[in-house]
């Protein structure tokens, strides 16, 4: 296990310890979807909740629960650990959106701090290994939507000059340049975060020397990075 993977494992263990104070409580909600047996299971010991039920609750709309924030807060250590390790089988964008709906940044400081430490450790581990259990795009999307900020994570990527980080960059570029998706790229299950301008500027300026992809020089992309460039060229040529 690499140093960065060890740091991620430590951050996940610290997350478990921070949330250990979250006691079981009587969970109530939509009995049509979960039934009394499912609600009883969610009201019991965290470790005894089945993976299938955890996945269902991780993706479920908040309106299914009488106290969604408390339920998601209690399940957060297992949901996040499963998501980070690629074992949750729920869209990462949806997990980010649910965490935002649960207002995780307003939770008690030790809880929110432990979660943020996981985001940072996960991002560093992602940039120092390839392939990982979760794609670099999905990882970036989750932590961006969850924290409400993209630029800090791009700064880390810029500063991480390793073969793995460059390989992840190549994969990311190849993904977002399909049909020029980068020009209208939103993150989050509900497209909460418009990442187009920040990502395109970063790709065309800060890491262009590390990206061996001629598509980044296409006039179409340049015109989106600097609106009006294409129009001025056409006038000049005429």
Classify the secondary structure makeup into a structural class.
mainly alpha
Largest sheet: 2 strands, antiparallel
In which range does the helix fraction lie?
Answer: 55-70%
Question: How many helices does DSSP assign?
Answer: 12
Q: Tell me the series of helices and strands, N- to C-terminal.
A: HHHHHHHHHEEHHH
Protein name: Barstar (barnase inhibitor) domain-containing protein
Task: Lay out the secondary structure.
Blueprint: H1 3-18, H2 31-42, H3 51-59, H4 68-84, H5 92-101, H6 109-127, H7 136-147, H8 151-159, H9 163-176, E1 186-187, E2 193-194, H10 196-206, H11 219-225, H12 229-237
Antiparallel strand pairs: 1-2
Helix pairs in contact: 1-6, 3-4, 4-5, 5-7, 6-7, 10-11
């Amino acid at each position: 296990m690499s140093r960065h993977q060890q740091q991620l494992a430590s951050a996940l263990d610290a997350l478990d310890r921070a949330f250990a104070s979250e006691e079981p409580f009587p969970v109530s909600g939509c009995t049509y979807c979960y039934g009394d047996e499912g609600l009883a299971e969610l009201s019991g010991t965290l470790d005894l909740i089945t993976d299938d039920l955890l996945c269902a609750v991780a993706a479920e709309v908040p309106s299914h629960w009488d106290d969604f924030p408390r339920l998601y807060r209690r399940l957060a250590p297992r949901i996040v650990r499963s998501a980070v390790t690629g074992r949750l089988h729920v869209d990462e964008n949806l997990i980010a959106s649910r965490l935002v709906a649960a207002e995780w940044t307003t939770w008690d400081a030790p809880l929110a701090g432990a979660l943020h430490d996981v985001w940072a450790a996960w991002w560093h581990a992602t940039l120092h290994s390839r392939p990982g259990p979760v794609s670099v795009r999905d990882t970036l999307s989750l932590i961006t939507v969850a924290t409400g900020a993209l630029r800090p994570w791009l700064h880390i990527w810029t500063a991480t000059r390793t073969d793995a980080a460059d390989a992840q960059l190549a994969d990311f570029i190849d993904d977002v340049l399909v049909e020029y998706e980068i020009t209208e790229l939103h993150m989050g299950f509900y497209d909460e975060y418009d990442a187009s301008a920040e990502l395109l500027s970063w790709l065309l300026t800060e890491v262009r020397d590390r990206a061996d992809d001629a598509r980044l020089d296409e006039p179409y992309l340049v015109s989106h990075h600097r609106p009006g460039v294409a129009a001025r060229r056409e006038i000049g040529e005429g």
